[in-house]
Amino acid sequence: xxxxxxxxxxxxxxxxxxxxxxxxxxxxxxxxxxxxxxxxxxxxxxxxxxxxxxxxxxxxxxxxxxxxxxxxxxxxxxxxxxxxxxxxxxxxxxxxxxxxxxxxxxxxxxxxxxxxxxxxxxxxxxxxxxxxxxxxxxxxxxxxxxxxxxxxxxxxxxxxxxxxxxxxxxxxxxxxxxxxxxxxxxxxxxxxxxxxxxxxxxxxxxxxxxxxxxxxxxx
Length: 219
Ligand SMILES: [Zn+2]
Fold this sequence. Notes:
alpha+beta; Zincin-like; 7 helices; 4 strands; elongated; disordered C terminus; binds zinc ion
């Protein structure tokens, strides 16, 4: 059974998205496929896959906010549907992910090799438990650093798309809105483990992008 908690977007919002898509097309940046527009509890974009159409979901609370802030978010989400923002991770990011997975795999293997001769009951009390835990956490953090670095690069590229292709600006008010809604855990997470760059940095990057129109396309 479907657990889709989104609702269809009002016609006015669909029109706003269509206008942004048309602007992108005029500038030579068509979206990969036409998205359906929904309202939900958080904003996101999903490419077409498995027979499902592409979808943009807008945080319904943004209907109450200024059109400029709403359009910024729509421009960012449309960025996720542009071929220019699809990227493979850097060599470092892929190395971190592979390294993290390898550390976790080796840890599990070593714990099993230590545990088997001594019996599984020895693990909770013995050093194998501590080292095993250390290895898993270390591998997890290193792997996540690679994955999250890739994610932040993609989010930054979508911000540039919103600025340069869809002509939107990330306002100070929206930075404050993002900070209010990102939650304490997210705020305390070191940048290297965050899926999105920090809101203040995102605005600085966008202002830089706007100030340098010669750079053209998102990278
Ligand atoms: Zn995004």
